[in-house]
Design brief:
The protein is α+β, with helices and mostly antiparallel strands. It has 8 helices and 8 strands. It is globular and about 45 Å long.
Length: 206
Amino acid sequence: MTEMEVIAVQLEPNSNHPLVWLKDKDQKIFLPIAIGNFEAVAIYMALHDEPPPRPIAYDLLCAIIDGFDVRVEQVLVTALKEETFFAEITLIRDGESICIDSRPSDALALALRVGAPVFVADQVIEEAGLSVKQDAQASIEGGEDNIATFIRSAGGDESAEEAPDRVAQQVNALKERLQEAVALEEYEEAARLRDEIGRLEHSIEK
């Protein structure tokens, strides 16, 4: 298995459905996994350290785990069957290891909140991993800042033309609306706002 890290949540260009992107530490392989809107918002918030106004399910799960003196040792994306990814969460309590079946999106949202490492089975990488050189034809030189280039090379994200200061103001306003949408459990609207925030932030980083 290979250790990977979550680097971004993006819209899939053709379907407009959210994908979570993982990459290995050598920055040679990317792994996209399709996820739901709610999970995309949860992962986005964890990536950007933006806690919701009220705790969502993953925050509650973290509190329960901590309350029972349980540690999340790792999460592992174990298999890909009929275009569906599978994962498991390994917990440690009193020296005993417990493996729990999970959707990858739930496992990743939890791992980001507790700082647990993320691994992907070699077979999954062979079946669904994307070689940067061969498939994206993009040169990744420095971590997450260049993921927008990778996405655009696959036909996605377009750059914004607004001035950086104005874009930054728009991002702040959209983040406030995102928190309100999550608090009201308006997850479709939250997903739309999340994607717009990501587009604008990438335009600033360029």
